From TrEMBL:
Protein name (Swiss-Prot/TrEMBL): TetR family transcriptional regulator
Location of the HTH tetR-type domain: 12-59
Domain Tetracycline repressor TetR C-terminal intervals: 70-151
Species in which this protein is naturally found: Actinoallomurus liliacearum
InterPro entries, per the entry: Homeodomain-like_sf, HTH-type_TetR-like_transc_reg, HTH_TetR, Repressor_TetR_C, Tet_transcr_reg_TetR-rel_C_sf
Pfam families: TetR_C_1, TetR_N
Keyword annotations of the record: DNA-binding, Transcription, Transcription regulation
Length: 179
């Protein structure tokens, strides 16, 4: 008889992500999540007292919060590396994208936005331009991933399109306008 893994907030979020990644956001229910965790759905409320709303907010934070790592070096290269990592995370959990772009969650992107803005300020942009630049860069990333995910889901990506190359070309254009 094997011992079950303890129920934690992290395990709940990871299992919910697994469900969304495999079955889609519309199939996520507290009952299905409980079944996947091998617990009664009510046990989840011990870790997420506000239920599904809190779970959705946690999913957004888990996927969308990815600050630029601290460090030195060329700001453009640091932003490029971060943008590729961010795109990878969003594509890995593309089922959460509708939540990221439609739900009101002021905290989920705050650390990410502030870290991008700080790096743009360190690169010499005034505060107002850095704020706009962070908005533009995040807008490009979210939009590019949403379009890429739609193309993958509908099979409408032209056969000769290199999605990595297309993303990088667009990113380079955005970064050229920023730093």
């Amino acid at each position: 008889m094997s011992q079950r893994e303890p129920l934690t907030r992290e395990r709940i979020i990871e299992t919910a992500l697994h469900l969304i990644d495999g079955q889609g956001l519309g199939r996520l229910t507290m009952r299905r999540l409980g079944d996947s965790l091998q617990v009664e759905a009510m046990a989840i409320y011990h870790h997420l007292p506000h239920g599904k709303e809190q779970l959705l907010e946690q999913l957004i934070a888990h996927v969308a919060a990815l600050p630029v790592p601290p460090g030195d070096g060329d700001p453009r290269e640091r932003l490029r590396a971060w943008a590729h990592a961010y795109r990878g995370r969003l594509l890995e959990h593309v089922g959460v994208m509708p939540l990221i772009v439609t739900r009101r969650n002021p905290g989920a992107l705050t650390a990410t936005t502030l870290s991008v803005r700080e790096l743009l300020r360190a690169a010499g942009l005034p505060e107002a331009e850095a704020a706009v630049g962070a908005h533009v860069l995040l807008g490009y990333l979210l939009g590019a991933v949403a379009l890429e995910a739609r193309e993958q889901a509908t099979g409408t990506t032209p056969g000769d399109v290199d999605q990595d190359g297309r993303f990088t070309a667009g990113l380079d254009r955005v970064l050229a306008g920023l730093v």
